[in-house]
Amino acid sequence: MKDIVLKVDGMHCNSCSTRLEKVLNMADGINSAKVSLEDKEANINFDENQIKIEEIKELIEDAGFTVI
Q1: Which has the least CB within 10 A, 12, 17, 31, 66?
Q2: Spatial separation of the C-alpha atoms in residues 41 and 36, rounded to whole Å
Q3: Which residues contact 22 (CB under 8 A, 6 or more apart)?
Q4: Between β-strands 2-9 and 66-67, what pairing exists: parallel, antiparallel or unpaired?
Q5: Helix 53-62, helix 14-26: angle, nearest 10
Q6: Which long-range contacts (CB under 8 A, 24 or more apart) does 56-60 make?
Q7: Interacting residues of 59 by C-beta distance below 8 A, sequence separation 6+
């Protein structure tokens, strides 16, 4: 298991952060994700044998946000 923190741009309200958190937590290989609107970041615990960091970034961007 590995932990990463990604800075995320484009979140404007609690609905944005809640939606992104739900998207991340539903993905295979992600054990837990906590998204903070205030800090503009996603704290993610994942299995690097199941999902790569680039794939996580793609999930965030597909949800309409930008990894910075």
Answers
A1: 12
A2: 5
A3: none
A4: antiparallel
A5: 140
A6: 56/4, 56/6, 56/24, 56/27, 56/30, 57/6, 59/23, 59/24, 59/27, 60/6, 60/8, 60/20, 60/23, 60/24
A7: 23, 24, 27
User: pTM above 0.85?
Assistant: yes
Amino acid at 56: I
pLDDT tens figures, 20-39: 999 999 999 999 999 999 99
pLDDT, residue 67, reads 98
Contact status, residue 8 vs residue 35, Cβ threshold 8 Å = yes
Tokens of 52: 């790569």
Would you state the structure tokens that stand for residue 39, as one six-digit string? 């800090």
Neighbours of 18 (CB within 10 A): 13
